[in-house]
TrEMBL record:
Gene3D superfamilies: P-loop containing nucleotide triphosphate hydrolases. Coiled coil: none annotated. Residues 11-263 form the ABC transporter domain. SUPFAM superfamilies: P-loop containing nucleoside triphosphate hydrolases (SSF52540). The keyword Transport applies. GO terms for molecular function: ATP binding. It comes from the Bacteria. It comes from Roseateles oligotrophus. Pfam families: ABC_tran, BCA_ABC_TP_C. This is ABC transporter ATP-binding protein. Keywords: ATP-binding, Cell membrane, Membrane, Nucleotide-binding, Transport.
């Protein structure tokens, strides 16, 4: 296999602190993400992983620190503008508690990820006429390619609510891919899956990274599954960074070992 090319820093997290009332969710967290790498953020329950992802994504505004994407910082923007700018700059995410439309088909759910790329307004789309029809056909072709890539052709017309949890997670990944992201944020992509489903998801994450060229930031509390696929790993515990490095470096970090031995994971 050709050696992977890791590029320049694309995302920078600098001295982030976030508190909810008296609860310190994150304290002075800094790390960076390089183009084309798979960067995992791991840690036991309550370590601050989701809070960190929500800061990166623009959902939460940290009280201190700054996050920049390709050198652009977001702290002066209100949350709506921040979320929109992030999406326009190619950041997409999946959700731990799936945010899919259960009654809609796999195809239509993945189509929702194309909205940002649709030029015609809703009226044109509703009429499905002329340029709007052409555009919808083009968008559908892109979605069909994602469906093929994720090997879910057999379920394209199936309402998502009828699929197994593992397949629903795959559809959620498809919806995020439909946004043509440069940076893909994955929120516990393997949570609730059996061993076989986890292996499939690992393979898809590696392929997305390789074939779509996406930079991937993923959070997970199961240390084992991410170690094999990540280029570098940040470890959080009680809102603090206790480790940062390659999987091999993190594995022999004493603080990381004791944080994990001290929990049920
Ligand atoms: N919206 C919120 N309001 C109040 N406290 C919160 C909120 N979100 C998170 N917290 C607290 O912040 C801390 C970090 O939580 P967070 O969900 O980020 O951790 P996590 O590592 O993602 O945990 P898990 O693996 O269980 O999902 C916890 O003490 C949590 O109770």
């Amino acid at each position: 296999m050709a050696e992977k090319k890791i590029g320049e820093v694309i995302l920078e997290v600098k001295n982030i602190s976030l508190a909810f009332g008296g609860v310190k969710a994150l304290t002075d967290i800094s790390f960076d993400v390089r183009e084309h790498e798979i960067r995992a953020i791991i840690g036991p329950n309550g370590a601050g992983k989701s809070s960190m992802l929500n800061c990166i994504n623009g959902v939460y505004q940290p009280q201190q620190g700054a996050i920049s994407l390709r050198g652009r910082s977001f702290e002066r923007m209100n949350s709506r503008l921040r979320l929109r700018t992030m999406a326009e700059m190619g950041v997409a995410r999946t959700f731990q508690n799936l945010a899919l439309f259960k009654g809609m088909s796999v195809l239509d759910n993945i189509m929702t990820g194309r909205n940002l790329h649709m030029k015609r307004n809703l009226l044109w789309q509703a009429l499905r006429w002329g340029p709007a029809e052409r555009e919808e056909n083009e968008q559908r072709e892109k979605v069909e390619r994602i469906i093929d890539f994720l090997e879910i052709q057999a379920f394209r017309k199936t309402p998502v609510g009828r699929l197994s949890y593992g397949l629903q997670k795959r559809v959620d990944l498809g919806r995020a891919l439909a946004m043509e992201p440069q940076v893909l944020l994955l929120d516990e992509p393997m949570a609730g899956m059996n061993v076989e489903e986890k292996q499939d998801m690992c393979r898809f994450i590696l392929d997305v990274n390789d074939e779509f060229g996406c930079t991937i930031v993923l959070i997970e509390h199961d240390m084992g599954v991410v170690m094999d696929i990540s280029d570098r790993v940040v470890v959080l515990d009680y809102g603090k960074k206790i480790g940062d490095g390659t999987p091999a470096e993190v594995r022999r970090n004493d603080d990381v070992i004791s944080a994990y031995l001290g929990t049920s994971h």
